[in-house]
Design brief:
With about 450 residues, this protein is an all-alpha fold. The protein has one domain: Hydantoin permease, CATH 1.10.4160.10. Helix content is about 80%, strand content about 0%. Helix 3 crosses helix 4, helix 7 packs across helix 8 and helix 14 crosses helix 15. The protein binds tryptophan (TRP).
Length: about 450
């Protein structure tokens, strides 16, 4: 007797949204957005960023959702079903490789997060001077054993969640971690706003200065919207293939983009008032999170708990992001190569662990291995963000905007059988014109920079 195996799906609409917001909210929101905003004219940057989310972000989210939900397949199966006579389905390999590249370097930073969480919890992180915090971080990344161990530990947690499957693993974890992440953020916001001199941080973040924005700032905002919303490598194609057919896609896309933007703004409200209130200089990236912020937390009353809470927040944000990155190759392997989920998970785990270990080692024993002046970690970061995400997004926008049958898009946009022509025109016109032009501008800028 042949038995048709049911494909997995998310259990509830809330769960589907939690997983997608989990994918979107990551390190990008917490260490890059606030700083970019502050550096590029505050409110002016935020205004441009919001425009990018509306004109670029939401339409590209929709293009991925249309591909995924209309077929309920992985990227390759989906493209094969939508364009059976063409070879576009090979593009899926590009997305799968992209997801592995991004997951590999991203996990190294997640490894740093859990080592800092461990140190904060055991009390060893406390009690240093600001200069010592820089040294603590340099010592850590300079140690091959520590760097690799924590990265591998993080990936073991990540792939253990993946083993639990779409509903219990991906959705289950997101449904618990995302609400908690919002609670922690709000507690932090209240605390930051009550600090003396918090207005200086808010001015840095919000006061609009169009002269400081410039073209660099505009291009940064476009790239940031792309990274933050997890676009380009079929993460949202994969997730939406697990959505139910009756959820209102457009509404869900707007909700996801809004919550992601809200987290980015709240992260700024948490970080800068505190940084300025204690007389520190704002910074971006690893330096902000691993050098400046520990100094700030330990000057607050209850610093022990603030530090733990902050690294828990980062852990939730990063784990739900790597989960979405891992789901891309796992769904691909189970459907295209008929592997069991367990075997596909194990295979991905081995590949990502090896590549991530190389990235972790590029700060110490492999620091001499460089391509065009970049170590392995920076190379993966550069290629992942600038090649895979951007070219992937360009492909999806053009494919859905210009080539996909109109009826498929109409059906996916429909709510109770009716499609608003405003929604259709908004999505399709942005995909046809604005998104490709914007992506080409970013690419040109990065290539010539
Ligand atoms: N959006 C995440 C962040 O802001 C990064 C991320 C997770 C991502 N999954 C992705 C980026 C898929 C591109 C594609 O940190």
């Amino acid at each position: 007797m042949s038995e048709i195996k049911q494909r997995a799906s998310f259990g509830t609409r809330m769960g589907a949204i939690a997983a997608s917001v989990g994918s979107a909210v990551g390190l990008g929101n917490i260490w890059r957005f606030p700083y970019q905003a502050g550096e590029n004219g505050g409110g002016a940057y935020i205004l441009v960023y919001l425009l990018c989310v509306v004109l670029l972000g939401i339409p590209v989210i929709m293009s991925e959702f249309v591909i995924g939900r209309s077929t309920h397949k992985n990227m390759k199966g989906a493209l094969r079903q939508l364009s059976p006579k063409s070879k576009v389905h090979h593009f899926a390999y590009f997305c799968v490789i992209g997801s592995i590249v991004i997951c590999s370097f991203y996990s190294v930073v997640c490894g740093w997060v859990i080592e800092y969480l461990y140190q904060a919890a055991t009390g060893t992180l406390a009690g240093h001077t600001p200069a010592e915090y820089s040294q603590v971080f340099k010592d850590f990344v300079g140690s091959p054993v520590r760097g690799v161990t924590w990265t591998v530990l993080f990936l073991v947690i990540n792939f253990a969640v993946m083993l639990l499957g779409v509903r219990r693993g991906v959705e289950g974890v997101s449904r618990v971690m995302m609400p908690l992440l919002f609670v922690i953020l709000i507690v932090f916001c209240v605390n930051s706003l009550m600090l003396p001199g918090s207005h200086k941080g808010l001015e840095f973040l919000f006061s609009p200065d169009f002269a400081a924005l410039g073209w660099d700032g505009v291009v940064d905002a476009m790239g940031q919207a792309f990274m933050s919303l997890s676009l380009g490598i079929a993460a949202l194609v994969t997730y939406s293939s697990y959505f139910s057919d009756d959820s209102p896609l457009m509404k869900d896309a707007v909700t996801i983009a809004s919550l992601d933007t809200l987290v980015a703004l709240l992260a700024g409200v948490v970080i800068f008032p505190a940084v300025f209130s204690f007389g520190f200089e704002p910074a971006a990236g690893p330096e902000l999170v691993f050098e400046v912020l520990p100094s700030v937390f330990y000057q607050m009353t209850g610093g022990y708990w603030w530090a733990i809470l902050f690294f828990v927040l980062l852990f939730f944000a990063s784990l739900t992001s790597t989960i979405s990155l891992s789901e891309i190759p796992i769904t691909f392997l189970t459907e295209e190569f008929k592997m069991s989920r367990a075997f596909a998970t194990l295979l991905c785990a081995v590949v990502v662990i090896v590549l991530a270990a190389l990235c972790a080692l590029s700060f110490n024993v492999l620091s001499g291995a460089t391509v065009a002046g970049m170590n392995i970690f920076s190379l993966f970061d550069y290629v992942g963000s600038n090649v895979f995400m951007l070219l992937g997004g360009l492909f999806t926008a053009i494919y859905v905007g210009w080539f996909l049958h109109k009826q498929v898009i109409m059906d996916q946009l429909a709510v109770r059988g009716r499609t608003s022509s405003f929604d259709y025109n908004y999505v399709v016109q942005c995909l046809r014109f604005f998104a490709p032009v914007a992506i080409l501008i970013i690419l040109y800028y990065y290539v010539t920079a």
